[in-house]
Amino acid sequence: MIRPKLSLRRPLALATGLLLGVAGAVAFAAPASAHHPEIFGAGCELDNGDIKVVWTVANSEKDWDAEITQISSPSGATVTGLGVGTKLPKLSSGGPAPTGEQTVPAGQNAELTVTAFWDKKREDVTNTRTGRAKLKGKCEEPEPEPTPTPTTPAPTPTTPGPTPPATTPPATPSPTPSVPEPGEATFELKETCDELIIIIDNPADGEAFSIRFQSEKGVVRTLEAIPGQVTSVSFDAYEGLTVIANSGGEEGPPVRWTKPEDCESGGGGGELPLTGAAAGGIAGGAVLLLAAGVVLFVVARRRRVTFTV
After folding, report:
1. Helix, strand, coil % (nearest 5) of the chain?
2. What percentage of residues in the chain have a pLDDT greater than 90?
3. Residue 196 near residue 243, CB atoms below 8 Å
4. Greatest CA span in the chain, whole angstroms?
5. Is the pLDDT of residue 152 over 80?
6. What segment(s) does the record annotate as region Disordered (predicted)?
């Protein structure tokens, strides 16, 4: 199963996007009853104990726009930027998912419940989902800007002074050449009839890093990205296999393994290429869900990586 290529800034964000891309593909293959809003939240704790949350609400459908008809939170705190009537663009449009901000009082659950409506001409669909924000510790305080020091104007001379000698302007220093960024690492996800395989191709000038993957049964695999080498980890495939990525203490969302269609007919269980309109729809969905996932896992480390699924 071949998925689209994207560029991110950190191994966990990359793994998160990879898993979200798989989740997006599964969502598109589901029946009409699978229509639902996708809710993501990233929060941090303020000095007074309140929780500041950024919510993102996406559309699960690639062919139909949706509209929020109800939105609520256990704390009752107002969500700025999201509300009844907010449009959720279809995945194939490539448009960004709407976002909103909320300050949840200390001790209250940082949750958001959204009901969305799809007008499908021949039938109307309504579905409700609840999402919980992932907390990332204390909120970072912005550094205060330095206060400029007032300058005292020079006194005006009563008599004209001597004409100063002409000065030669200082030579302009040559700009310091910028240091090139490290090479891009390429991730690839393969689903076969027997295994779920995660592969990384790290160029010789890439950075070394590692990502920890764990199944719902507690099976752990650590993927080491070694400059100049291709490395991989795999999980034995079975119904219900769910894998979560973890890097630096931050977790990505869980995703289930999907059996390839040719397994039913006794096929070899290799990769399933996607072409044509179906591939375009899945690619668009994966891109949008990945954009929503990034909101949850933006971090300070600056590096360039690319994944292919």
Report:
1. 15, 35, 50
2. 35
3. yes
4. 103
5. no
6. 87-110, 123-184
Structure tokens at 265: 């007919």
By CB neighbour count within 10 A (0-12 exposed, 13-18 middle, 19+ buried), where does 53 fall?
Answer: buried
- At residue 305 the predicted structure's pLDDT band, cuts being 50, 70 and 90, is very low
Provide the residue type at 74 as one letter.
P
Residue 198: CB atoms within 10 A of its CB come to 24
Instruction: Sort 161 into a burial class: Cβ within 10 Å, 0-12 / 13-18 / 19+.
Output: exposed
pLDDT of residue 272: 42
Q: Which helix (H) or strand (E) holds 99?
A: strand 99-104
278 touches 272 (CB < 8 A) = no
CA distance 246 to 218: 13
> 253 in the Ramachandran plot: left (φ > 0), alpha (ψ -120 to 50) or beta?
beta
111-140 b/e with 16+ CB inside 10 Å = b?
Answer: bbebbbbbeeeeeebebeeebebbebeeee
Task: Supply the mean pLDDT for the chain.
Answer: 74
pLDDT, tens digit, for every residue of 49-82? Answer: 999 999 999 999 988 999 999 999 999 999 999 9
Enter the tokens of residue 285. Answer: 């969905």
